[in-house]
Design a protein that fits this description.
The chain is an alpha/beta fold. It is built from 9 helices and 11 strands. The chain is globular and about 50 Å long.
Length: 240
C-alpha cells in the first residue's frame, strides 16, 4: 500500500470524458483508460467515491434552453448519469475492482439508493462507490452533487477531472494569453468568476473547508499523481 496525502477522495468526472473523440455516447477505449487509472489508484488503498455527469448522452440545460421543461430536462440528465455509472461499474468489475452504484433516484432493479452510512461502509470495505443521478433534484448540477456527496462521505478532497491543466484566468482553448493558477482561494473563484465549479458548489466547499484539485484527465496517470501528492493542476482552498 502506497501512502499519499489523501485517504478518501471524491472524483468528479464529466460525462463528456467518456465520449472520447467521438463527442457523443461512450467510447469503449476511453472507458477502459479511465477505469484502468481508477484501478491503479484503488490498488494503493485509497478509498474512492465517484460522481459522474451525463453530458455525453443528454444535457438538461441545453434542452431547457431550446424549450423543454427544465424539470423534465434535468431528470433526463440524471438518467444519463446512471447509464454512465453502470458502464463504469461494468468496466471496473471486469478489472476485479468491486464497485457499487448508488442513485439519488430510487431505481432498485439497477442500483442501490444513496444512503450515506452504506456508502461509507462500502468505502471502508475497499469498494469504489459511484454516486449517480446528481442530488436527485432539478436545478442542481453534478458539480454541486459532487461537493455534497464529498461532504457526506467525509472525503479529504474533491478531484475535478477536466480537459485542461487546471484553472485559468479565461478559457485557454480560446485565449492563448490565459494565465494559469497553481492555487486560488474559494473567494477568488467567486469574485473573479473563474470557471471551476458552479457558485453553489464552491460555496459549499468554502463553508466546509473542502479543497478541490482541478487537473487534466487527458494525460494518462494524472489521477494517481494527484492522489500521491504531486503538484498537478490547481488547488482551490481557503488561502490562495
Amino acid at each position: 500500500m502506497v501512502e499519499g496525502p489523501y485517504k478518501r477522495i471524491l472524483l468528479k468526472l464529466s460525462g463528456e470524458v467518456l465520449a472520447g473523440g467521438q463527442g457523443f455516447g461512450i467510447d469503449p477505449r476511453r472507458l477502459i483508460q479511465i477505469a484502468e487509472e481508477i484501478a491503479e489508484v484503488h490498488a494503493t488503498g485509497i478509498q474512492i467515491g465517484i460522481v459522474i455527469g451525463g453530458g455525453n448522452i443528454f444535457r438538461g440545460l441545453k434542452a431547457s434552453a431550446e424549450g423543454m421543461d427544465r424539470v423534465n430536462a434535468d431528470y433526463m440528465g440524471m438518467l444519463a448519469t446512471i447509464i454512465n455509472g453502470l458502464a463504469l461499474q461494468d468496466q471496473l468489475e471486469r478489472m476485479k475492482v468491486y464497485t457499487r452504484v448508488q442513485s439519488a433516484i430510487n431505481m432498485q432493479q439497477l442500483c442501490e439508493p444513496f444512503i450515506r452510512r452504506r456508502a461509507i461502509r462500502h468505502l471502508e470495505k475497499g469498494r469504489v462507490v459511484i454516486m449517480a443521478a446528481g442530488t436527485g433534484n432539478p436545478y442542481f448540477t453534478t458539480d454541486t452533487a459532487a461537493v455534497l456527496r464529498g461532504i457526506e462521505i467525509e472525503a479529504d478532497v474533491i478531484l475535478k477531472a477536466t480537459k485542461v491543466e487546471g484553472v485559468f484566468s479565461s478559457d485557454p482553448m480560446q485565449d492563448e494569453d490565459a494565465l494559469f493558477y497553481e492555487r486560488v482561494s474559494y473567494l477568488d473563484v467567486l469574485n473573479r468568476g473563474l470557471k471551476v465549479i458552479d457558485k453553489a458548489a464552491i460555496s459549499l466547499c468554502m463553508d466546509n473547508k473542502l479543497p478541490i484539485v482541478v487537473f487534466n484527465l487527458t494525460q494518462r496517470g494524472n489521477i494517481k499523481r494527484v492522489v500521491m501528492g504531486e503538484k498537478i493542476g490547481t488547488l482551490v482552498s481557503s488561502a490562495s
